[in-house]
Amino acid sequence: MKLQPIITSLLETDLYKLSMGQAIHSQFSNYRTTWSFKCRNKDVHFTPEMVTEIKEQIQAYCSLRFTEDELRYLDETIVWFKCSYIDFLRLWHPRFEEFEITANGDCGLSIETTGSWLNTSMYEIPTLAIVNEVYFRMAYDYDQLLESFKEHLDAKLERIAKGGDLWLSNFSEFGLRRRLSSEAQELAIEKLVKTEFEASHFVGTSNIFLAKKFGVKPVGTMAHEWIMCVGQGNHKHNPAYSNWYAMDAWVNEYGILNGIMLTDAITTDCFLKDFNLTYATLFSGVRHDSGDPFEWGNKMIAHYKKLGIDPKSKTLLFSDGLNFEKADKLTRYFKDKVQVAFGIGTYIANDTDVPALNIVMKTTACNGMDVAKISDASGKGMCKNPEYVDYLQRCINWRMTHE
Residue 126 has what DSSP assignment? Predict the structure, then answer.
């Protein structure tokens, strides 16, 4: 490796990966998935030297193991983790054999992982963090990028600090998979912890490693993969009912704990068909990740009212491409209507003088069957089989017009 190891701890992942991991371990340990990397930036190209470095960095990541100190932290901090899952993590480690990394992709990089869902789910976040940092360190003058990052960070923190003009209510940092570097993300968390707020409140970070280091709350519930794999990985399921299957399995695992539900895996309108009084009561709130956030928020408030639930008792968590200005507008709009919170990633962890990468690693198959996401905005899905996307859309359409 030409660079220092980028991922140095297995805690350096988002909390929702371990939360989903426990539920997978308990209920879906025999599921197998394929994950595929995609770079959405049309003008970005990874050189052969970058591909080699990425491969060696991932190989180094696969040599890591959870330490007893890290496992003790998880056991004592995350109230919903079972000792059986902690024991599993004591034995678990990434397997480099489950990665296929080549220069064959349109952007000069192709990454695919195949194996148990229990394993391959854990690879997404560290892989994206590695790809980001390798690219920015090798394609640019990294020191200049870091200086611009620091300047941008200081300027934006002034606007949400005590005496600033922006009001964010509760917000968390979600930037691990999109960060400029581990150094940059750590600097951002350190400054957020030290900032004195008045109208805003920094809740914590999705990065468990940094949450432990800085003594802040690790945050995060679930990703789209949970709904896609639980709802579409069983060939007997009608995929238009993916949300019902996913919520049922989540409640079986966690009850009322860890309860923020994603709404847009197969469109929010279809989600609302299954978000009945029981689930709307058990889940403490819902997360927005695509489509117009104001329309979505109004729709969720109306749904809660229709069910006889006071919206002020629930949380709308916004996480789609946010910056502080957007969060401020949403806070002021929904003030006194509902509780709001924000998960902000790229804007905190990778705001420099050059554009951030728009890279993803998505589940593309589960148990030998295609899986797909049809969100509330075009361009966020990723499926290798257009015929399956068409089938899924027809299932959704039928349900929306016949129920």
Answer: H
Q: Cβ atoms within 10 A of the Cβ of 26, count?
A: 15
Q: Are residues 60 and 209 in the same domain?
A: no
- Using CA atoms, how far apart are residues 392 and 372, in angstroms rounded to an integer? 8
The beta strand positions in 331-375, using DSSP E, are 339-344, 359-366, 369-370
Same domain, 159 and 128: no
Specify which residues 35 forms β-bridges with.
113, 363
d(CA 343, CA 127): 21
**Claim to verify: residue 257 and residue 134 sit in the same structural domain:** no
Using CA atoms, how far residue 388 sits from 240, 360, 373, in Å, is 13, 20, 11
Q: Strand, helix or coil at 353?
A: coil
Q: How many residues does the chain have?
A: 403
pLDDT tens figures, 126-154: 999 999 999 999 999 999 999 999 999 99
CB neighbours of residue 161 within 10 Å: 17
Residue 393 resides in a domain: no
The DSSP string of 175-227 is: -GGG-S-HHHHHHHHHHHHHPPPSSEEEEEESBHHHHHHHT-EE-----HHHH
Phi, psi of 211 (to 5 degrees): -60, -45
Cross-strand pairs, 317:
287, 341
Structure tokens at 149: 């990052």
CATH number at residue 45: 3.20.140.10
C-beta separation of 181 from 133 below 8 A:
yes
- The domain of 98 spans 15-139+355-368
Nearest 5°: phi and psi at 272?
-65, -20
Q: State residue 378's pLDDT score.
A: 77
Return phi, psi of residue 97, to 5°.
Answer: -65, -20
Say what the pTM is: 0.96
Report the 10 Å Cβ neighbour count for 147.
13
Q: What is the pLDDT of residues 304-344, one digit of tens each?
A: 999 999 999 999 999 999 999 999 999 999 999 999 999 99
Q: Is residue 55 part of a domain?
A: yes
